[in-house]
Amino acid sequence: METKNIMIAGVGGQGSLLASKLLGHLLLEQGFDVKVSEVHGMSQRGGSVVTYVRYGDKVASPIIDQGQADAIVSFELLEAARWLAFLKPGGRVVTNIQQIDPMPVITGAAQYPENLVEKMTAAGARVDTIDCLSLAEEAGNVKAVNLVLLGRLSHYFDFPETVWQEAIEACVPPKFLDVNKKAFALGQGA
């Protein structure tokens, strides 16, 4: 199998590192060679965080270059657009519709860009949007956005439900397991 590349992009504190850990664990358990690389910007609550997940028969490097990502999984709309140059032609973007203002918007030096989904689609991306925050709230914890997003992402993998559940159980602390399983199911069903 040729190497597949997934970028997970978000804002510090949203749970993107747990999402990449869970996805990496799941892929390893399915027998793939997996490389996960974390690229932090100003990740201390509010800055951009990007993680690369590469998997296949044999993966040489953990880094994804521009134009190589099969998918971008994004916790925030502007982060999806920010990393779009890394997407392969015809690649897929799975993104939360939440908008978190970056510092230039907060200070009034810039405005949050409009029509980002339309712009990404016009650039050739296949964009799948989901309101992860509302579904995480429904699950019982706004911090479960990551599992809602992984639930939606699961549509693009041909793995049985049990594989996803086992990965959740292996990576999520027991006291948060119920809410995270519910969040995953809500994302899967959305």
3D structure, described in words:
By secondary structure, this protein is α/β, with parallel strands linked by helices. It has a single domain, classed as Pyruvate-ferredoxin Oxidoreductase, domain 3, CATH 3.40.920.10. It has eight helices and six strands. The protein has a six-stranded mixed beta sheet with strand order 2-3-1-4-5-6, with helices on both faces. α5 crosses α8 (177-189) and α6 (145-153) packs across α8 (177-189). The radius of gyration is 16 Å and the shape is globular.
Mean pLDDT rating: 93
| Fraction of residues in helix | 25-40%
Number of helices: 8
Number of domains: 1
CATH fold-type name: Pyruvate-ferredoxin Oxidoreductase, domain 3
Q: Quote the beta fraction.
A: 15-25%
How far apart the termini lie comes to: 30 Å
Give the class from helix and strand content and strand pairing.
alpha/beta
Major sheet details: 6 strands, mixed
Using DSSP, what is the number of strands?
A: 6
Short description:
The protein is of the alpha/beta class and 190 residues long. It has eight helices and six strands; from the N terminus they run βαβββαβααβαααα.
What keyword list fits this structure?
190 residues; alpha/beta; Pyruvate-ferredoxin Oxidoreductase, domain 3; six-stranded mixed β-sheet; globular
